[in-house]
Design a protein that fits this description.
Low-confidence stretches of chain A: none
Oligomer: homodimer
Strand order of the largest sheet of chain A: 3-2-4-7-1-8-11-10-9
Strand content of chain A: 15-25%
Radius of gyration of chain A: 19 Å
Largest sheet of chain A: 9 strands, mixed
Amino acid sequence: MREVAIIGIGQTSVDEHWDKSLKELAGEAIFAALRDANRETAEALFIGNMLSGILSKQENLGGLISDWIGLPGMEAEKVEAACGSGAAAFRLGLLAVGSEEIDSALVVGVEKMTESLSVETTEALATAADADYESAQGLSFVALNALVMQLYLHTYGWKHTDFAPFSINAHANALHNPYARLHEAITQKDYNNARMVAAPINLLDASPTGDGAAAVLLVPADTIRAATRPVIKVIGSASATDSIAIHSRKDPLWLTAAEKSAHKAYQQAGVGPGEIDFFELHDAFSIMSVLSLEACGFAERGKGPLLGLEGQIGVKGKVPITTRGGLKARGHPVWATGVYQIVETVQQLRGEAFPTQVEGAKIGMAQNIGGSGATVITHILTAE
Amino acid sequence: MREVAIIGIGQTSVDEHWDKSLKELAGEAIFAALRDANRETAEALFIGNMLSGILSKQENLGGLISDWIGLPGMEAEKVEAACGSGAAAFRLGLLAVGSEEIDSALVVGVEKMTESLSVETTEALATAADADYESAQGLSFVALNALVMQLYLHTYGWKHTDFAPFSINAHANALHNPYARLHEAITQKDYNNARMVAAPINLLDASPTGDGAAAVLLVPADTIRAATRPVIKVIGSASATDSIAIHSRKDPLWLTAAEKSAHKAYQQAGVGPGEIDFFELHDAFSIMSVLSLEACGFAERGKGPLLGLEGQIGVKGKVPITTRGGLKARGHPVWATGVYQIVETVQQLRGEAFPTQVEGAKIGMAQNIGGSGATVITHILTAE
């Protein structure tokens, strides 16, 4: 496959955007990405979204958004892989440009969640779990993650409070990200005393949903001439699945799909976890940060919380994560999240992430998870 | 892009499958495609579907179906482009194999429509129209198509009964397709007297929805050795969009996106409409057959009905269409339809379509339409 580069990024703030529709949010991010790339158009549009049909009673986003941005006629498709939809759309845009069939592709992740024309968001979100064996039994996503966290604490002997550093770090980094949903530092005491949601997950373990859109523009790397800033190339991209119902997995505490997709991406990029300068992981719940770090080889099985407790996850640590706030504090506009992660990875690699810049960052990884580990998509980017 | 071939096809009958779930239908078609190709597995799975989240309360089909078919771990994503989802999934599977990142891709279109856990199917279907300006005003898809057909009759001076040949031909061809929903020959008299749905569209202008799944297996063409039957290659693939709301188009009687995507596909394949031996078009309503034939260059503007009246659309005609029954009589399991069209195109090119075989067919075209012409995806296949 020919090499592909990201030449434009754009995003809206993650917030309750009561005054903006789905297409307006998407347009805002797309125009920002085009401006950033100094381009006016693109050949194709890949959209990451899952719930517009349920919450906004609007599918067929390809026609809707391409028309709205003033580019009717362009190829446009929506890609869905639950909460991994953003990265899935990015990956298919990447393959389209890589295949030489498409010479420029916009990827936009967009979600409007605070408003619903039908069911409540929690019920809509539960469609990412197994309808027959999980959601029909009343298991929401926070409940599923709570069961996993309980099992983790029980199996490896950690205390709930040992997970605090993940949330504290995310909130600290988000303070400096103007697009983040939460601008609010938190302490260990805040974490310990936060309101319970589904034991042991409390409010500060869980990421806030929201409305938002993020976009990138992809082109063949060899078409970039006279670059005035680092050229950001995609050097690893892999997607893997696991059973959708957690009880069907051999080990509910191991994200097999995360391991598989990270491993494939490492192979493509010719690196290992040791060469990754920072990792934008999918911290929908703090337990997911730990499981992701373990599955991707940054921590031994059952030892994930140590990285937080030893101060290794901050921007000056060994494994900087959620450097712009992560899902926990930048916010989790669910199906846009995967594209936000790519945008933030590009910011770091361009050196545009002050004051949470990872010094000398050359290789960054982003991992987006759909469902409770059922679809996991990993990307590795580098600056040249 | 490297050449891609279809080496396996599979389908379920289109019917009310009360006894089969979404994943069971998908699995049946996938296993049939694998058996047909004499393979046991594939590297990736692309799923065409739109309404599972609304009707079955199940998204994240990638994880769900890959697990169900016994291949957890494989890459799997869902692609949505309204009623064009099937062809959109096929196209992205094609690009993935073409890009050299994936060496074998299953594409499955699956839809379960006769059962709903939430709203009625008609309301769910309306999410493919413009939520703000069409469906919110009470416009269903049949109503939208009725307005277009009214305008067509008025503008070009045809009578409603002139459209009968499209439905008669589809029903006649479906008689010999064991997977078709309707096995029932109809006459001009039946058509003239059919119950009105939304004037001027009557029951015999409209395609029946249903449950069903169709699947194909894609591999690089150069990996096929010692073929015992014709090798089916994809020589044209293009996707284009138009404004989602019909009133925003300059000419509501012209499918700009169909013209654009067909034109691109012709260019890639190095052929014109004259070289197309048969055309599996998107006859969701008889008016769509006419608009599609005109936009793709098989008939002059306003002259589409002539092809039917002159007997040119049958399997021995100049432009054989809907040779296995089309949406009208094979049935329209909406988001699977695009893959059914590909499966049927392969049957014709392999010479497996007796007694509705188009004699000597070497080049076939399939066109899948999402919304009322908002997303149109055209594929051209050839037998070697």
